[in-house]
Amino acid sequence: MKILIIEDEIQLSDAIEQSLKKQLYVTESASNFKEALHKVISYDYDCILLDIMLPDGNGIELLKQLKDIKKDDSVIIISAKDSLDDKVLGLELGADDYLTKPFHLSELHARIKSVLRRRNQNGSNSIVLDNLELFPDDYKVTIDGKEIEVNNKEFALLHYLVINQNRLLTKVAIAEKIWGDYMDEVDSYDFVYSQIKNLRKKLKQNNAQPEIKSVYGMGYKLVNSN
């Protein structure tokens, strides 16, 4: 899961980023409106943490632009402004939640998990695809009810494939989603192939019905083998 933190208070931004990394999220950050706008236009995120008060612009305006370009990234507004009007406007513009500063990081984690459940899992604690079941809160995978061993990156990769089942995902998109936005600057994506190969082997060994198909020269997609 990839999260963008838009926050100009560097100490708070760093604290949030470190806590999310401990929860195994991939994180990116932006400290001003211009940088944040570039990131939301250029990349996709599972969740955006959006401060309203930015040094060179307003988070509400950024939210408007996000929706104008039809991006569906989930958004949680985090702001020191505990104004009912701001909350209502933010939610009407498409924000998924609103958290007032100061807040406990544990509450932020809970809000993020809740938003991601609604976005990817229809409110459920797991995602089921044929005989494959993923539990994102626990980074657990089962096949026919039996847990299989996967590392953190393998889980993130499988989760991304499952929520985009039957859709072609390019190596660039996979790299950016699982390893972070700076991956668009690397010279080779051989490491994506290596991760796909390992994950495909584990699925096959445990008789998973979904399988990862290669689309020559383009990328991969998860399909039902039956």
From TrEMBL:
A UniProt-annotated Pfam family: Response_reg
Gene Ontology molecular-function annotations: phosphorelay response regulator activity; transcription cis-regulatory region binding
PROSITE patterns: OMPR_PHOB, RESPONSE_REGULATORY
Residues annotated to bind DNA: 124-224
Biological processes annotated in GO: regulation of DNA-templated transcription
Domain of life: Bacteria
Gene3D superfamilies membership: 3.40.50.2300, 6.10.250.690, Winged helix-like DNA-binding domain superfamily/Winged helix DNA-binding domain (1.10.10.10)
Annotated ranges, domain OmpR/PhoB-type: 124-224
Keyword Nucleus: no
4-aspartylphosphate modified-residue sites: 51
Annotated SUPFAM superfamilies: CheY-like (SSF52172)
Keywords: DNA-binding, Phosphoprotein, Transcription, Transcription regulation, Two-component regulatory system
Residues covered by the Response regulatory domain: 2-116
Record-level GO cellular component terms: cytosol; protein-DNA complex
Protein name per its UniProtKB record: Response regulator
Organism: Myroides pelagicus
